Amino acid sequence: MNLNKVFIFVTLATLLLLHGQTEAGTLRNIGKKLEKFGKKVVEASKKVGEVSERVLPLLGAIGALGR
């Protein structure tokens, strides 16, 4: 019974993938959205890195004052 469900799922997934390959416009739009998302993630991580470089010495100085 489970093998039948797996077979049906794999068949449907294959059909969807094959159908999607004929429509380059849809795949192109998805690719562009993924690329834009990736760029936003990279920019956000750069900003976090810059902020952490400024904050860590400040936190160290505050910790030293408390000792």
Commentary on this structure:
Keywords: Antibiotic, Antimicrobial, Immunity, Innate immunity, Secreted, Signal. InterPro entries: CecC/Srx/CECD. This protein has 67 residues and is mainly alpha-helical. It is built from two helices and no strands. The model has no long low-confidence stretch (mean pLDDT 81).
Largest sheet features: none
- Overall shape: elongated
What order do the SSEs take from the amino end to the carboxyl end, as H and E?
Answer: HH
The whole-number mean of residue pLDDT values reads: 81
- Global structural class: mainly alpha
The number of strands is 0
Strand content is: under 5%
Number of helices: 2
In angstroms, what separates the terminal alpha carbons? Answer: 67 Å
Outline the fold blueprint.
Blueprint: H1 2-22, H2 24-66
State the gist of this model.
Helix content is 96%, strand content 0%. The chain is mainly alpha-helical.
Descriptive key words:
67 residues; 2 helices
